[in-house]
């Protein structure tokens, strides 16, 4: 297998996994609807940074510890579960308490929430860093796409970068679609729905992560 063939084969696998609805897509969609395009881009970049960190860790063999050590895997799993449940509960709580900021519902619907882009980036980063399944995914897949005679470290990093580029393309599509839906249905109403759906998804994933075994 050549480097070109490895990149193409990995791209197909990564693309299929990227478009499957999950936490990353839910977070970026929520940010786009509730806080605007800038926050959605920040969240997407945070998600990408988390994936890249896991990819580099897998390439150098550090995240193999998650496969070999039940204790390490369980501790990171519980930390991730607490983070996801807490974030999901916060979204549900704020969506239930949110009220239009203006007496004019049309005016209120067009005003996204303000806040720090740094927080949006950290939210995307934390969701990935505290998800051990991403590390396990890289450990399980990257070795299969390293051609003989190439540097495992450099090839692993290259594959992680390819995964990130695919993810950014997908997030760009999600952000554009969210902007259209917000303009069509009204930002405030769509934001509440997005927060509630995302909150339920996060809590569900967190509980599943806490209760599952490998």
Main beta sheet strand tally, sense and closure: none
Envelope shape: globular
**Residue share in β-strands:** under 5%
- Multimerization state: single chain
Number of helices: 10
| Average predicted confidence as pLDDT | 75
Q: State the separation between the terminal residues, measured CA to CA.
A: 31 Å
Q: From the helix content, strand content and strand pairing, which structural class follows?
A: mainly alpha
Strands, count: 0
Radius of gyration equals 19 Å
Uncertain stretches:
100-112
Structural domain tally: 1
Topology order in helix (H) and strand (E) letters: HHHHHHHHHH
Q: Helical content, roughly? A: over 70%
Subcellular location: Cell membrane
Protein name: LysE family translocator
GO cellular component, one term: plasma membrane
Keywords: Cell membrane, Membrane, Transmembrane, Transmembrane helix
Task: Outline the structure in words.
With 214 residues, the chain is mainly alpha-helical. It has ten helices and no strands. Mean pLDDT is 75; it is low at 100-112. It is found in: Cell membrane. Pfam families: LysE (PF01810). GO terms for molecular function: amino acid transmembrane transporter activity.
Task: Summarize the topology.
Elements: H1 3-19, H2 23-34, H3 37-60, H4 64-68, H5 70-97, H6 105-109, H7 117-129, H8 132-141, H9 152-185, H10 187-211
Helix pairs in contact: 1-9, 2-3, 2-7, 2-9, 2-10, 3-7, 3-8, 3-9, 5-10, 9-10
Keywords:
single chain, 214 residues, mainly alpha, 10 helices, LeuE-type, transmembrane helix, LysE family translocator
